[in-house]
From TrEMBL:
Residues 214-375 form the TrmE-type G domain. HAMAP family: GTPase_MnmE. It comes from Christensenella hongkongensis. This is tRNA modification GTPase MnmE. Belongs to the TRAFAC class TrmE-Era-EngA-EngB-Septin-like GTPase superfamily. TrmE GTPase family.
C-alpha cells in the first residue's frame, strides 16, 4: 500500500515540558534526514541533536526512527521530541511540512495502524476511549480492549462459527449420506452455547456504560428537604445555593464526582410540587426531564416531617419514569419524626439511608449504596466490558442471527437457511473487529479521533 507521509503534533496544544511531533509514511526517513541529519538511525534509538533551518537553530531535540512494519502505524515512522514551546513546535512542524510531509487528519495515524493490521477496529476505538476516559473504571475498560481482549473474544466466537459452518456445509454437500440428523445433534448445543456467550457479552454494556460515561444519578424530593445540600455534601463542593426557602433551586444543577474510580454524574433538581409560578413550573419540568435521563434517583425525605401529599406526588413521578430509587431520610441531626416503618408503609420495602446533609452523617454510607448499585449489573466475562454502542449493536444482531439459525435447525429447514444465518452472525461479529465494515463506517469512526492520534 502506497501512502503519503503525514505529520502532526501528538501532544496537546500549548505550553508543556516536551512536545512530540510524529511523522509516518514511506518518506518518513527522508523527512527526518532533512530536519535532523544523521548518517543513519538505528531503529528505536533516540538521538540528541539540533534542528537547524538555513543555519538557524529551531530547537534541541530527541529524534527516533522506527522501521516498517515495526512501528505504531506499521509504516516507517519518525518522532521529534521537542521542547514544549508553542512557537518552537510551530516552527519545526512547518519545517517538517516543507521537507515533504503533509498535515495528518484526525485519527490518521491510528487509521493507518488499523489498515496495516497493527490493531483491529475495536482496539483502535479503544485508543480513542482510553485517551478521553474520565474515570479509573473507564480507563480500565478501554485499556482491556486496547490490548486486544475484545478482539480475541470475538475471534473465538467466529472460530466456533467457522467450525459449525464447515459441518453444515458437509451436510449440504452430501445430502444422500443423511448426515443431517447427526450434524444437527452435534452442533445444536454448540450453537446454543455460543448464542448465550454472545448475548452475555452484549449484556455487559450496562456496566460498560457506567464505566465509560459514569452513572447518572438525580436527587429528587419536595421543596426544602435538602437536595442542594446533599449535592454539596456528596461532591464536597459549595456548588448549589442552599436556603431555608422552598423553591430555592429553579434550574437543574449538574456536578460529577468519583467514588472508587466510578464517575457519578449527579443532578440536583428543583423541588417537585404542583405550582402556578411560571418559573418554578419550568423548573419542575426540568426536574422531571433530569429524572427520566437518570438511571438512579435519590428520593429525599425530611425526617423531621410526616410524609405529605407532596412526597407522594414526587414518588408517583419516580414510579412513572421507572427509574431505580434509593430513599434517603435527611436532617437526622435535627429531629426524627418520620420513622423507617412509616416510610416502608408508604413506599414499599425500601431501605432508607439515614443522613444529614448538613453534618455529613451517613454520606459515606450513601456513597457506598450508589457504588453498590453501579456494580449491581456487573456481568463482565473475563473482565471484558462492552463500552461502545456499535459493538453492542453488532453483538445483539449476531445473537439474533444465532437464534434464527437455531430456529431453522429445529424446524428442520433446509441446511442452506442455517448457513445463511450463521454467515450473518459471522459478519455481524466482524463489524466489531472491522473485518466486515464499510469504508463509510471506518471513516466515521476515525474522524471522531483527536488530531495527532
Ligand atoms: N513516543 C511515543 N510514545 C507513545 C506512543 C507513540 O507513538 N510514541 N504510542 C502511540 O500510541 C503509545 C505506545 N504505542 C505504541 C505501539 C506500538 C509501537 C511499535 O513501535 N510497535 C512495533 C515494535 C514493537 C517492539 O519493538 O516490540 C510493532 O508493533 O511492531 C510503538 C508505540 C503510547 N506512547
Ligand atoms: N438541620 C438540617 N438542616 C438541613 C439539612 N439539610 C438541609 N438543611 C436545611 O434545609 C434547608 C433547605 O435546604 P436545601 O438544600 O436548599 O433544600 P432543597 O431541597 O434543595 O430545596 P429546594 O431547592 O427549594 O427544593 C436549608 O436551610 C438547609 O440548611 C440537614 O441535614 N439538617
Ligand atoms: Mg435546592
Amino acid at each position: 500500500m502506497v501512502s503519503d507521509t503525514i505529520a502532526a503534533v501528538a501532544t496537546p496544544a500549548g505550553t508543556g515540558g516536551v512536545a512530540v511531533i510524529r511523522i509516518s509514511g514511506a518518506n518518513a526517513k527522508d523527512v527526518l534526514q532533512r530536519v535532523f541529519p544523521r548518517d543513519d538511525y538505528v531503529p528505536g534509538q533516540m538521538y540528541y541533536g539540533s534542528i537547524k533551518k538555513d543555519g538557524q537553530l529551531l530547537d534541541m531535540v530527541l529524534a527516533v526512527f522506527f522501521r516498517a512494519p515495526r512501528s505504531y502505524t506499521g509504516e516507517d515512522t519518525a518522532e521529534l521530541h521537542c521542547h514544549g514551546s508553542a512557537v518552537g513546535v510551530e516552527n519545526i512542524l512547518r519545517y517538517v511540512m516543507e521537507c515533504g510531509a503533509r498535515p495528518a487528519q484526525p485519527g490518521e495515524f491510528t487509521r493507518r495502524a488499523f489498515l496495516n493490521g497493527k490493531m483491529d477496529l475495536s482496539q483502535a476505538e479503544a485508543v480513542c476511549d482510553f485517551i478521553s476516559a474520565s474515570s479509573q473504571a473507564g480507563a480500565k475498560a478501554s485499556l482491556g480492549q486496547l490490548t486486544g481482549r475484545l478482539r480475541e473474544r470475538v475471534v473465538e466466537f467466529q472460530d466456533v462459527l467457522t467450525d459449525a459452518l464447515a459441518q453444515v456445509e458437509a451436510a449440504v454437500e452430501y445430502p444422500e449420506e443423511d448426515l443431517e440428523t447427526e450434524i444437527t445433534q452435534d452442533i445444536r448445543p454448540v450453537l446454543v452455547r455460543l448464542k448465550k456467550d454472545i448475548a452475555h457479552l452484549a449484556d455487559t454494556f450496562a456496566s460498560g456504560q457506567i464505566a465509560k460515561e459514569g452513572l447518572y444519578v438525580a436527587i429528587a424530593g419536595k421543596p426544602n428537604v435538602g437536595k442542594s445540600s446533599l449535592l454539596n455534601a456528596l461532591t464536597n463542593m459549595d456548588r448549589a445555593i442552599v436556603a431555608d426557602i422552598p423553591g430555592t433551586t429553579r434550574d437543574t444543577i449538574e456536578q460529577s464526582f468519583t467514588v472508587e474510580g466510578i464517575r457519578i454524574n449527579l443532578t440536583d433538581t428543583a423541588g417537585i410540587r404542583r405550582t402556578n409560578d411560571f418559573i418554578e413550573k419550568q423548573g419542575v419540568e426540568r426536574s422531571e426531564k433530569a429524572i427520566n435521563e437518570s438511571k438512579l434517583v435519590i428520593f429525599m425525605l425530611d425526617a423531621g416531617l410526616e410524609i405529605t401529599e407532596e412526597d407522594q406526588f414526587v414518588f408517583k413521578t419516580l414510579k412513572n419514569s421507572q427509574v431505580d430509587v434509593i430513599v434517603v431520610l435527611n436532617k437526622l441531626d435535627a429531629s426524627e419524626r418520620l420513622s423507617e416503618e412509616a416510610v416502608k408503609m408508604e413506599f414499599g420495602d425500601v431501605h432508607p439511608v439515614r443522613i444529614s446533609a448538613k453534618t455529613g452523617l451517613g454520606i459515606d454510607e450513601l456513597k457506598k449504596r450508589i457504588v453498590d448499585y453501579a456494580h449491581m449489573d456487573q456481568t463482565a466475562q473475563e473482565g471484558i466490558l462492552i463500552t461502545n454502542e456499535r459493538h453492542r449493536h453488532a453483538l445483539d444482531r449476531a445473537a439474533e442471527q444465532m437464534g434464527d439459525a437455531l430456529d431453522a435447525l429445529d424446524a428442520g429447514m433446509d441446511m442452506d437457511c442455517v448457513t445463511i444465518d450463521l454467515n450473518g452472525a459471522w459478519t455481524s461479529l466482524g463489524e466489531i473487529t472491522g473485518k466486515t465494515v464499510s469504508e463509510e463506517i471506518i471513516d466515521r469512526i476515525f474522524t471522531k479521533f483527536c488530531l495527532g492520534k
